[in-house]
Specification:
Thiol Ester Dehydrase, Chain A, alpha+beta, 143 residues, globular, 5 strands, 5-stranded antiparallel beta sheet
């Protein structure tokens, strides 16, 4: 999944019929799952490590501190969608990423919001600062 020219990250995915609610639209809980998948893929792309082991990749050991979702236009599976992630803020142990769920043709924004994670120490499970490499890579993407 590519970094876009303006520093945003594009994650393309597909929605499926079994993710729908009684109205035949994407159930609200699946947005959170899709954001998680997009964020992990974003970390893999920016950091070059595909693991959740804090001993190998300490910066992927995070907890979600805040999640803000605004549902704008329903998604009717089955279809492909783009999730665009944009780094808004990097703090000592926090990272806030804005996101949009968009149609493939970019004509429709289905959902937008933000997600803030806090980096945790893999041993103490307490907040811990990002590594210098993580900060450098993500601060370069802040818009």
């Amino acid at each position: 999944m590519p970094l876009l020219p303006q520093g945003s990250f594009l994650f393309r995915t597909k929605t499926w019929f079994d993710q729908t609610d009684g109205l035949g639209i994407l159930h609200h809980s699946h947005y959170v799952l899709l954001i998680e998948r997009a964020q992990k893929t974003f970390f893999v792309e920016t950091m070059g490590v595909d693991t959740l082991d804090p001993g190998i990749a300490p910066d992927v050991y995070v907890v979600v501190r805040d999640l803000d979702l605004h549902y704008l236009t329903p998604i009717r599976p089955e279809c492909e969608i783009n999730i665009v992630l944009t780094v808004r803020k990097v703090r000592a142990a926090g990272l806030t990423v804005d996101f949009e769920f968009r149609s493939i043709d970019d004509k429709t924004v289905h959902c937008r919001g933000s997600r803030t994670v806090c980096r945790m120490d893999g041993k103490t499970h307490q907040p811990a600062p990002w590594t210098d490499d993580f900060r450098k890579r993500h601060e370069a993407l802040v818009r």
